[in-house]
Amino acid sequence: MKIYNTTTRQKEEFESIKENEVGIYSCGPTVYSSPHIGNMYAYICWDVLARIKKYLGYNVNWVMNVTDVGHLVNDSDDGEDKMEKGSKQEGLSVWEIAKKYENEFEENLKELNIQHPNVLCKATDNIKEQIDLIKKIEANGFTYKITDGIYFDTSKFADYGKFANLNLDKIREGARVEVNEEKKNPTDFALWKFSPTSEKRQMEWESPWGVGFPGWHIECTAMSIKYLGETFDIHTGGEDHINIHHTNEIAQGYGAFGHNTANYWMHNAFITFKGEKISKSSGGLFTIFDLKNKGFDPLAYRYMALGSHYRKGIEFSLESLKTAEIALNKLRSYKIDSLGKVDKTYKKEFIEKISDDLAMPEAMAIVWKMMKSDLSTEDKWATLLDFDQVLGLNLKSIKTNTIKLGLSYEVVPKEIVDLVEQRKKVREEKNWAESDRLREVLKNKGYLVEDSQNSCKIHKIR
Ligand code: AMP
Ligand code: ZN
After folding, report:
1. Per-residue confidence at 339, pLDDT binned at 50, 70, 90?
2. 116: which DSSP letter?
């Protein structure tokens, strides 16, 4: 399998550290507000990666963190703490805020049929591990102490900025008004922050350096190596993480162990709305539950995500979500109870695509080519269910039924499908009286049947 490694900026043949095993660490949510469709897009991408690895025969250990310690609102180490801000806004403690949004995140995972990571670890449960890691970095001479915390001295790591192709001279020039004058270099970042003397923080811990809380990059390095080892296979995140978060994680890895902790770094592009990063002001800041309230099936969003490459991102609109839902329902409409066999030729083509750096749009094209082929209906459904181990559209357990209504495929109650089938049968037997009776039954249930010479169309009476 080939994957695009941000470290080398090219597609590389994937080689796992241990045979048939793969360790994946994904930067997870900060639990201070509801996750939006952009956040969930990232986790769909990495769920697909984990599913592909499983499909190709690997044992997958997928680790994700939950950031429940406050990050500061901006990328530098000052500003307001996101968790404390959420806590003030909602009148709940930071611990309650964290619990509330962690639960909400897990509900989102279920709605989108994203597998639960093998480990979903919280920053607050791993404070000791973070302190131990800072101690290591300190012992190796990469840190210094200033008034508000312990900082990583990025000038001690010669390759700092190489990962993100940062122009450090430009950054130095741009940092004329340095917010924190005690920092030695503008790119230096906090490993441990001291609690302010003026106010008591809701979340703070004892440490060898004083009471405070971890800086916002250390948790990912600490937890990834705790669960996956000092060097592991794949680290993922959104492309916004390249310049700072992952650049700093790499620096921490070198500071502690003298090497990059992950062999492959993968990044997803962003979901946009009206051409812009989704935000409150653009009006695109939907949650999965907003989409549900608008009558959409959350899995239609997953289907939509599969339609674009993870490094390209997607322009989101409700219209394209509708189109995705119609296509998903059409796939569901192939459901039959007897299973045939998985078609080897299509499976081979499907594997070629998914193994090419998760080429999901091309893989979806194979799905449709197969569905429209002259394979038997039983074989089509069996092959589709096999592919669905990667797609994750939960086709195996659809309880609802799909029918062609007008031009699109819609999910209708099973009773309606049965009535339509029954009517089809009696018409084949030329039992017109029964056919007319069933037409009336359907009409009373809200479905209008229109017969033409050799087909019948069904419309929902609105
Ligand atoms: P946060 O909870 O803010 O830490 O973000 C969680 C994840 O969502 C990060 O990996 C981000 O890179 C990702 N993310 C945020 N906005 C978007 C977006 N519009 N499209 C795709 N991924 C996003
Ligand atoms: Zn992270």
Report:
1. confident
2. P
- C-alpha pair distances (Å), 386 with each of 166, 298, 369: 43, 21, 15
Could you read off the pLDDT of 196-219 as tens digits, one per residue?
888 788 899 999 999 999 998 999
Q: How far is the CA of 261 from the centre of ligand 2 (A)?
A: 13
Q: What is the position in ligand 1's atom list of the atom closest to the CA of 270?
A: 20
The alpha-carbon radius of gyration of the chain (Å, integer) is 26
Average pLDDT over residues 121-149: 97
How far is 381 from 371, CA to CA, in rounded Å? 8
Count CA atoms closer than 13 A to 147's CA, side-chain side. Answer: 6
CA–CA gap between residue 75 and residue 79 (Å, rounded): 9
Whose C-alpha lies nearest to ligand 1, atom 14? 39
- Tokens 């990050």 map to which residue? 71
Candidates 185, 269, 196; CA nearest to 6 is 269
Q: Which ligand is nearest to the CA of 252?
A: 2
Residue located nearest, by CA, to atom 19 of ligand 1: 38
Write down the pTM of the prediction: 0.88
Coil vs helix vs strand at 424: helix
How far is it between the farthest Cα atoms of the chain?
Answer: 90
List CB-based neighbours of ion ligand 2 within 5 Å. Answer: 27, 220
The pLDDT of residue 78: 60
- What angle is formed at CA 267 by the lines to CA 265 and CA 271, rounded to 5 degrees? 175
How far apart are the CA of 382 and the centre of ligand 1, in A?
35
In the reported structure, the alpha carbon of residue 443 is separated from the centroid of ligand 1 by a whole-number distance in angstroms of 47
- 388 burial via Cβ count (<10 Å: 0-12, 13-18, 19+): middle
Bridge partners, 264 (sequence order): 234
Q: Give the model's pLDDT for residue 198.
A: 82
pLDDT recorded at residue 407: 65
Output the CA 43–ligand 2 centroid distance in Å. 13
Q: From ligand 1's centre to the CA of 81, what distance in Å?
A: 18
Q: Alpha helices of 209-287 — where are they, by DSSP H? A: 218-228, 247-257
Answer for the pair 164, 154: CB distance below 8 angstroms, yes or no: no
Q: What does the pLDDT read at residue 71?
A: 66
The answer to whether 236 and 49 are in contact (CB under 8 A) is yes
The count of other CB atoms within 10 Å of the CB of residue 265 is: 22
Mutate to test the pocket of ligand 1, among 39, 273, 277 (most ligand atoms within 8 A of CB): 39
442 Cα to the center of ligand 2, angstroms: 54
Ligand 1 neighbours (beta carbon < 6 A): 27, 29-30, 38-39, 41-42, 237-238, 240-241, 268, 270-271, 277-278
Above 60 in pLDDT, residue 76? no
